[in-house]
Amino acid sequence: MFKTLTDAVSNRVNVKKAQHLDQLIPPVINCYRKVEMHNKYCVFFAQVHQDDVLYEAPTEKELQIVKEKKDKKSTVRKNKKRKIMDEKYLIEIEEAAKGEKGCNGRK
Prior knowledge:
Layout: H1 5-10, H2 12-20, H3 31-41, H4 60-98
């Protein structure tokens, strides 16, 4: 392996480190963050990093998951806004029925 004893002694630490250290696996990026990074910042990635796992394009499954989540959030928001508007409209109708306000909002 080594030609001389001095080479073996000097490289002993490196050999021991290589035997005991495991290759670190980077954590997987969140699919929501991955889609956002690809859509917003893909243009700014250097060509050197285009093949990196962190910067790869999201899969169809990940895109579908993010789209469903966004649709769900938007429907919840719309329903909440619609509920608030319906409540305001009912209050206006009740006030108009009591004679507190006219149809156009005046007393």
